[in-house]
């Protein structure tokens, strides 16, 4: 279980995440919503270790990981879609995913073992690349991919690492309309396993509504609503703070 306790970060006088306490259970997909600048990405950065907390704690399975650097949190099981800069830009799609599979399997340096396992790693990597619709680009260097394909590669690498906690920050942003359902299907399949903690920052409310088991709402860095999706979406604080306009638009469209 992942937990934040009074998690806070200040930038000068501005409190971007303000004493957020929340627990995230395995088998649950929690959407984190809120207006632009609410603190969603900053909250993600505090959980994954990209930013140091000014106050408060982050715990994973009861262990305090607040001061661990990001790579050590990854090893503990906090998985976030990697930016291309954290991948290997000159290696192919297949090799990038293969390295993630190998990292998950704890591939050591015992040469005979590496030689034996390499075929299995490559097969799994190719399968994952196909699942994100990159099957026809296995040999292309990551850096040469268009932006949408790079985002898909990030998702494939995350799937290959298969962390305890999956963190998706607008996973379909910048993708073509054909690719969006591919990624959403993967998240759906992951959710159906019911053994992983999934956090999703997403602006598209139809996606949030369909995928989430729970929604938390951040506003000015504070947690202002938390609960079952229909109830949170209907709550006055959310209608006012964030969804008012979307609800009006939906009514107008109906
Ligand atoms: N490194 C930083 N230095 C100073 N201020 C920052 C920094 N990172 C974020 N902020 C500020 O913290 C606040 C929260 O930003 P954040 O990006 O987390 O919001 P968000 O909810 O993810 O917004 P969006 O939906 O637009 O992505 C904003 O006011 C932002 O300007």
Automatic annotation (TrEMBL):
Alphabetical list of Pfam families matching this protein: ABC_tran (PF00005)
Keywords: ATP-binding, Cell membrane, Membrane, Nucleotide-binding, Transport
Segments crossing the lipid bilayer: none
Domain ABC transporter: 2-245
The keyword Ribonucleoprotein belongs to this UniProt entry's keyword annotation: no
Gene Ontology molecular function, alphabetical: ATP binding; ATP hydrolysis activity
Superkingdom of source: Bacteria
PROSITE patterns for this protein: ABC_TRANSPORTER_2
A cellular-component GO term for this protein: plasma membrane
Ion transport keyword on record: no
Name of this protein: ABC transporter ATP-binding protein
């Amino acid at each position: 279980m992942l937990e934040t306790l009074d998690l806070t970060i200040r930038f000068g006088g501005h409190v971007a995440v303000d004493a957020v306490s929340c627990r995230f259970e395995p088998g649950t997909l929690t959407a984190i919503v809120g207006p632009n600048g609410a603190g969603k990405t900053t909250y993600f950065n505090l959980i994954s270790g990209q930013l140091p907390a000014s106050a408060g704690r982050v715990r994973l399975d009861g262990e305090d990981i607040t001061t661990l650097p990001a790579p050590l949190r990854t090893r503990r099981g906090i998985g976030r879609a990697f930016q291309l800069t954290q991948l290997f830009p000159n290696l192919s799609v297949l090799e990038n995913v293969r390295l993630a599979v190998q990292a998950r399997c704890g591939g050591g340096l015992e040469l005979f073992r590496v030689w034996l396992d390499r075929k299995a790693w490559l097969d799994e990597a190719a399968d994952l690349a196909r699942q994100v619709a990159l099957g026809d680009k296995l040999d292309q260097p990551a850096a040469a991919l268009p932006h949408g394909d790079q985002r898909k590669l990030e998702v494939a690498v995350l799937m290959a690492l298969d962390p305890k906690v999956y963190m998706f920050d607008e996973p379909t942003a910048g993708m073509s309309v054909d690719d969006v359902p591919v990624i959403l299907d993967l998240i759906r399949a992951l959710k159906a396993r019911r053994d992983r903690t999934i956090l999703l920052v997403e602006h598209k409310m139809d996606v949030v509504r369909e995928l989430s088991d729970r929604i938390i709402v951040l506003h000015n860095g504070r947690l202002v609503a938390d609960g079952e999706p229909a109830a949170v979406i209907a709550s006055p604080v959310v209608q006012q703070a964030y969804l008012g306009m979307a609800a009006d638009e939906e009514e107008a469209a109906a």
